[in-house]
Amino acid sequence: MRRYFNTEGICRPQIHYMVRLDERLEKIRRRYIERGSYFVINRGRQYGKTTTLRALAEYLKPEYIVISLDFQEIGSAEFKDEAVFSKAFAEILMKACRNGEKTENTEELLQPLNCFLKGTENIMMREMFEQLSGICARATKPIVLMIDEVDSASNHQVFLDFLALLRGYYLNRENTPTFHSVILAGVYDIKNLKLKLRPDSEHKYNSPWNIAADFDINMDLGVDKIASMLREYETDNCTGMNIQEISESIFEYTNGYPYLVSLICKILDERIPEIKGFEKAEDVWTKKGVAEAVKIVLNKTSVPLFDSMIKQLDTFSDLRDMIEEILYQGKRIPFSPYVKSVNLGVMFGFLKEEDGRVAVANRIFEMGLLNMFMTEEAAHSEAFRYGQRDSSQFIDDGHLNMRRVLEKFVLHFADIYGENDEKFIEAYGRKFFLLYLKPIINGTGNYYLEAQTRDARRTDVIVDYRGEQFIVELKIWHGSEYNERGEAQLVDYLDYYHVEKGYMLSFNFNKKKETGVKEIRVGGRTIVEAVV
Question: Using one digit for the tens of pLDDT, what is the confidence trace for 310-319?
């Protein structure tokens, strides 16, 4: 069977193109398993947690007995009290042992626990742990317990009781046999599991899992790892792609988020060749092809990762408000993991730390969130209405006329901002332009905000339209000297993107300002400047 890029469930190197995990597995073994650590792998949805656990289980088999469980096998009703939970847990543990690596004494090892279950009606969790301790004492090799999808247990007090007993046995491990190492995996870390159960301030940071070692293994896919995966694909398919260039382009959009990397590659492999202009493999695996794949990702009606993101933003309004401020206003928020909204955003995989500030985790998330915010506002936005009305005027032979876009926006600006005061326009004027631009490029192009230049004074918008890029600097007017520095910065940015013409839109609140659009030459580049 031909290998393919997988975005559904566990990745297996025999049938999927994927990053090799040997280096990651060895780090986990050396840093955590050898030391007998108890720890949590908590990352955002579809970050490769389950794939890593399955690969780690195989990797550890020569030296350890690995019991791999999934809490999704325990129904909600089985968390109602400790007797029901203990029986369910013991049953899935025995099942995992029998389905795992077969040893001569597997049944002998499990027999006392099996007899105990059959002979006892109401099992107390403490009694179950005594049986588990007996298994650990009789085992011929140290036992590593892995539990995936711990989020399934997150709203149940009995799970916290389970963690407390694990902690107790860990602390007394020199006297009482127990698991050599325990790994829990899920989106929520243990502290936030407690937070979900008891939101009152007295309890929300108390956790029975304070024995857990910090898991600091990087699970992002860097450019080198993406390239290694694409080399395997290229060996099989001979597309002639520039592997380094394509790897860098995919990383620029995804920042190495595993699911997004695989999704873009899957679309490039399976869907882009069906689009006119991309029939040849050498046209598909290009930066233009990557941009087309990103457009498909953003236009997909149902992506579980994005559905989860929307759900979390609806649940945590402070997190949503913070992301809007970052995207719309260029607000620079100092990074602190002790701020609840920041902590949640990082835990879900939406946010990251960048130069001491809070930033959206990757460009695709930024584009998707911006599209969502814009769509929600479009229905009652004058800017969007004007852009929708004018949209047919800006396309010349399939090319976007950005100068005409700026000219029309300048013409309509007074009607768009209405009676809003200067402070409001300074904060949201750039949003007006983005709303005006959205219906003009919608469905054919995309835009994103350049993170490196985005702040309260300046934002660069990169517009991709049919493979052509437009760099538009949006800024607040702060005098001629500042404007000249902005022109020089824009020229540097045009050089970086190898673009001959750039655009600048200034929001000027001086009473004697001169509005309109003009064209100037700076540093060998053309800049179209618009002032409103």
Answer: 999 999 999 9
81-96: buried (b, 16+ CB within 10 Å) or exposed (e) per residue? ebbbbbbbbbbbbbeb
**Same domain for 397 and 475:** yes
Residue that the structure tokens 């457009």 belong to: 295
Instruction: Kindly state whether residues 86 and 233 are assigned to the same domain.
Output: no
- The radius of gyration computed from the CA coordinates of the chain, to the nearest angstrom, equals 28
The Cα–Cα gap between 250 and 255 comes to 8
Output the CA–CA distances (angstroms, integers) from residue 329 to 340, 426, 428, 477, in the order listed.
21, 8, 7, 15
Cβ proximity of 504 and 453 under 8 Å = no
Q: Are 283 and 300 in contact (CB under 8 A)?
A: no
User: What's the predicted TM-score (pTM) here?
Assistant: 0.88
> How many structural domains does the chain have?
3
Question: What band does 452 get if pLDDT is binned at 50, 70 and 90?
Answer: low
- Average of per-residue pLDDT across 292-303: 87
Q: Are 497 and 450 in contact (CB under 8 A)?
A: no
Domain of 164, in residue numbers: 22-197
CATH code for the domain of 185: 3.40.50.300
Question: In this model, does residue 199 exceed pLDDT 50?
Answer: no
Q: Answer whether residue 136 is part of any domain.
A: yes
The CA dihedral of 13, 18, 22, 26, to the nearest 10 degrees, is -120
Q: Which helix (H) or strand (E) segment is 452 a member of? A: none
Secondary structure element (H or E) that encloses residue 465, with its range:
strand 458-465
User: pLDDT-based confidence at 413, cuts 50/70/90?
Assistant: confident
Tokens 């389970």 sit on residue: 162
Kindly state whether residue 215 falls inside one of the protein's structural domains: no
pLDDT in tens, 256-268: 999 999 999 999 9
Pair (190, 228) in one structural domain: no
Does residue 37 sit in the same domain as residue 168? yes
Q: Considering the domain boundaries, does residue 214 fall inside one?
A: no
Cβ proximity of 100 and 180 under 8 Å: no
Higher pLDDT, 301 or 349: 349
H helices of 172-303, in order, are 190-197, 223-237, 243-254, 258-270, 281-284, 287-299
Residues 230 and 186 both lie in one domain: no
Is 178 found in the same domain as 239?
no
pLDDT at residue 405 is higher than 70: yes
C-alpha span between 128 and 330 (Å, rounded): 54
Per-position b or e across 423-437, b if 16+ CB within 10 A of its CB: eebbbbbbbbbbbbb
Is residue 392 one of the residues assigned to a domain?
yes
